[in-house]
Amino acid sequence: MSPRTKKDLEPIRNRSMAKITEAALELFANEGYHATSVSKIAKKAGVSKGLIYNYYESKEDILQAIVTGANSESEELLKELFTGSPKKQLRNVLSYLFNLLNEDFHRIKLFLSLVAQVENIDFVHRLGVEKYQKTMAILENLFSQLNYENPRAEAQFITALVDGLAMQYAVLNDDLPLDSIRDNLLDKYQLK
Known about the structure:
By secondary structure, the protein is mostly helical. The protein folds into two domains: about 1-55, Homeodomain-like (Arc Repressor Mutant, subunit A, Orthogonal Bundle), CATH 1.10.10; about 65-190, Orthogonal Bundle (Tetracycline Repressor, domain 2). Helix content is about 80%, strand content about 0%. The chain has nine helices and no strands. The protein has helices at about 5-30, 40-45, 50-55, 60-80, 85-105, 105-115, 120-145, 150-170, 180-190. α1 crosses α6 (about 105-115), α4 (about 60-80) runs parallel beside α7 and α7 crosses α8.
């Protein structure tokens, strides 16, 4: 039997890295970044600590992979969400945000916990500021196209509302009436 080539090893490597980042994401979200050790991540992922260090230099490197991966995914998604009429774009954004709260809360919970620790993690702060500025510009343009009197204020309102919903959901979970809130927003923006 001949030795495996780099091409043969790539899917194995990708699966291992995905197991590591998924385990880290859950632990960072539930236990906090600082309270999570590489040993805990290895145990949760079902891999050796040595394998983790084969792929990542440190716990911060794992975090950076999670954050940059999520950022890349959101960049691609933004391209899809912001197509069609301005009303359709706004409906797409709101639908996506509420689906994200329902379906991928571990990631949201991680980012919420990072906000509290952001002064210690420079790359998260930089990325957060860049993402906020880009999102604000897109939303401000969208509300301008929808002929809002103060598009910037409306963009600030919607971003603050979404951040607040995420925080409330972190505390209240299923006790927060997400469907009712989503329906009220769709009514407010006349998107039904």
